[in-house]
Amino acid sequence: MFDGTPGKEVLDLKEVQWQRLSTSVYENKSLKKTQDIAKALKEINADIVMFCEVGGFESLKNFNQLFMDDVYSPCLIEGNSERNIDVGFLIRKNLNFYFDLQSNKNRPINYLYPHERQSLLTGYPVKGGITTSHKFSRDVAELRLFTTDKEKPFLIILLAHLKSRLDPDRIDPNGFERRQAEMRTLLEIYNELTHVHPELPIVVAGDFNGNASLQNTDEEFKGLYATTQLKDVLEVSALPQEARATFYQVRNGARAEGRQIDFAFINPQLAPLIKAGSAHVHRYKDEFGMAHDIPKSMDAKLSLPSDHYPVVFEIENLKIK
């Protein structure tokens, strides 16, 4: 965040000078990491980029102008995050369609924490005053692509960032119940859309903060397979399990445990339109164009542009109408 958008000359600054430009209470993402994120996105060259953990619309706008040559339109509605991390999009300019973004941040997830439920049962005042339901930790952003009528889209993307495993108040171990409630509500939104648009291709994507894959599915995501026909695009594309990790947990003894916690689920209408061989997890590259090794130490992990790796796929023969 800056006092006005600076010119590209700031890209040549030293890190300490770069940080001094910030007008936010938060530090800027390091200049090198931001440049490396841009480098990766330019390699991917996507028409639509889906982001989690964005520091607001201004941050996304400045990133696009300074680092992405202003070839995209930033698209973001501030969500409920207490940590200023939002979900948003970059959409390539001059495409032959329009877009509309809607928010679900005010939608109840039909969930109260155990101590809140207990207070209601016993007639005690509820700490915090929430007596009906919490809402999404961040949001489920609903992006509609259309040509003439936003109520008649040709593609819908639901982008979510579900509750993390952090539980600083010790009220929901590993954030399980809250994440489960958010996932259940996300599926309700998806099912409502399929009821209104039964033939429409739909993507449900984002950081799920757990294993929502078909193999060894975490408990909070099992409803996805029980109530919908959504499938992970990497599963549809038969990507080997060892190539699906989007996050690495560094363990003692130079060990790294790879897990997929970032997903792009597609419905049956979209599955046949995924270009063969296009779905993959992008690996960050060094200055010589070689993919970085799997991080086996915290120093190696912290040197990467992000601790998450992008999920990439290509849609072809989509009817734009």
TrEMBL record:
InterPro entries: Endo/exonu/phosph_ase_sf, Endo/exonuclease/phosphatase. Residues 32-308 form the Endonuclease/exonuclease/phosphatase domain. Pfam families: Exo_endo_phos. It comes from Bdellovibrio reynosensis. SUPFAM superfamilies: DNase I-like (SSF56219). It comes from the Bacteria. This is Endonuclease/exonuclease/phosphatase domain-containing protein. Transmembrane segments: none annotated.
